[in-house]
């Protein structure tokens, strides 16, 4: 193996998403079957022992691509020379906690991590925020990293995208690989909007293939938007393997590109496209090429879509105001 290993930092490494994610990174699914990786696991002090247990299991897999594992509770160590950072660890909402409390608690995590990325990461650092509220946590981290290009901070809506693909494939009796150009807009929250107006199924208009407006508005969109809560209800724990899978997909696509004629959904800093206020980290249709993403331009947005996008973006603006007033950005 002659290639230089890529340093991949995972926060919240001892958590349930971490457990579903690390083995896939180490086996080459994040970056490619020919790319060696070094893992940096960041945890809070009480969870370090559990992270060590996971590292022992990683060792026991004898992954040829895995060139080292470092475990730490110090963000400056975890992000030292980091090329890819997956920010998974976050403070979950607990009983009696208001949204403002949640944002403040997460500010205590993502602000120092953003600063540590700013001070220590490699020049080509790419950041994916998974920990909720993902879009606004990404904004907090980005604001604390003024020396890193803003577009390197992204948040995950790929799980919503994948959920929407499967719901649509099931409804139409097709395969997920027949579906192209689906979009998740806005926040990774119940206000998100899964949009099939530009999507195709087997080359035909998805709206025409579905031909059921009631299903679209009353079943499809809410099912995708509330899927996270439905998983919690069914499993007694939030999605983990599917979230890890989406994180792998997000970074893999960002680095290796989207296929010709298709796009994906990523929450990225808005450049003002589609009327989304500049700087908000909002989900858009994007294509990726040569390690860079670009918002798909020129899509017609009908009145229905406009209202849905605006509602989710309004929530993101409120979250931005809340963290601004807390001095987090
Ligand atoms: P979990 O509670 O199992 O694990 C979280 C881990 O983060 C814990 O081990 C905890 O010790 C660690 N942690 C907490 N603070 C930390 C810090 N400051 N630095 C490093 N590590 C820290 O949770 P999980 O199921 O793995 O989920 C993680 C997050 O991902 C949650 O916020 C969850 O809501 C979110 N999530 C997002 C999506 C998405 O689509 N964006 C999907 C599923 C879950
Ligand atoms: C998900 O979409 O599965 C999670 O974001 C749900 C949650 O609240 O953790």
UniProtKB/TrEMBL annotation:
Write down what this protein is called: Malate dehydrogenase
Q: Which positions in this protein are listed as binding NAD(+)?
A: 12-18, 106, 113, 130-132
What residues does the Lactate/malate dehydrogenase N-terminal domain cover?
A: 7-146
Tell me the active site: 188 (proton acceptor)
According to the UniProt entry, what is the EC number of this protein? 1.1.1.37
SUPFAM superfamilies attached to this UniProt entry: LDH C-terminal domain-like, NAD(P)-binding Rossmann-fold domains
Q: What is the role of the protein in this entry? A: Catalyzes the reversible oxidation of malate to oxaloacetate.
Any Pfam family hit? Ldh_1_N
Query: Is Oxidoreductase there in the keyword field?
Result: yes
| Molecular function via GO | L-malate dehydrogenase (NAD+) activity
Identify the residues that bind substrate.
93, 99, 132, 163
Alphabetical keyword list: NAD, Oxidoreductase, Tricarboxylic acid cycle
Q: Which organism is it from?
A: Streptomyces fragilis
Report domain Lactate/malate dehydrogenase C-terminal positions. Answer: 157-323
Q: Tell me its family.
A: Belongs to the LDH/MDH superfamily. MDH type 2 family.
**Catalyses which reaction?**
(S)-malate + NAD(+) = oxaloacetate + NADH + H(+)
């Amino acid at each position: 193996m002659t290639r230089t290993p890529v340093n991949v930092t995972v926060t919240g490494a001892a958590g349930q998403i971490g457990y579903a994610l690390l083995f896939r990174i180490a086996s080459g699914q994040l970056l490619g079957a020919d790319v060696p990786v070094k893992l940096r696991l960041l945890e809070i002090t009480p969870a370090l022992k559990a992270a060590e247990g996971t590292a022992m299991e990683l060792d026991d897999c004898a992954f040829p691509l895995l060139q080292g594992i470092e475990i730490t509770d110090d963000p400056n160590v975890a992000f030292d020379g980091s090329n890819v950072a997956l920010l998974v660890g976050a403070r979950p909402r607990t009983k009696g906690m208001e949204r403002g409390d949640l944002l403040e608690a997460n500010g205590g995590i993502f602000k120092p991590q953003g600063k540590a990325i700013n001070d220590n990461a490699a020049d080509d650092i790419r950041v994916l925020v998974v920990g909720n509220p993902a879009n606004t946590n990404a904004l907090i981290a980005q604001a604390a990293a003024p020396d890193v290009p803003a577009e390197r901070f992204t948040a995950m809506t790929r799980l919503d995208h994948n959920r929407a693909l499967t719901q649509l494939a099931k409804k139409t009796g097709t395969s997920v690989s027949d579906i192209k150009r689906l979009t998740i807009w806005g926040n990774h929250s119940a206000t998100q909007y899964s949009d099939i107006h530009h999507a195709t199924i087997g080359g035909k208009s998805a709206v025409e293939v579905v031909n059921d407006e009631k299903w679209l508005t009353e079943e499809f969109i809410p099912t995708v938007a509330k899927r996270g809560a439905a998983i919690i209800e069914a499993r007694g724990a939030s999605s983990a393997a599917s979230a890890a899978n989406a994180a792998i997909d997000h970074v893999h696509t960002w680095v290796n590109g989207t296929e010709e004629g298709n796009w994906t959904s990523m929450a990225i800093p808005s450049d003002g496209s589609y009327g989304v206020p500049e700087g908000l980290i909002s989900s858009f249709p994007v294509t990726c090429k040569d390690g860079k993403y670009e918002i798909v331009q020129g899509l017609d947005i009908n009145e229905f879509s406009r209202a849905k996008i605006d509602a989710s973006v309004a929530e993101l603006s409120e979250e931005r105001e809340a963290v601004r007033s807390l001095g987090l950005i």
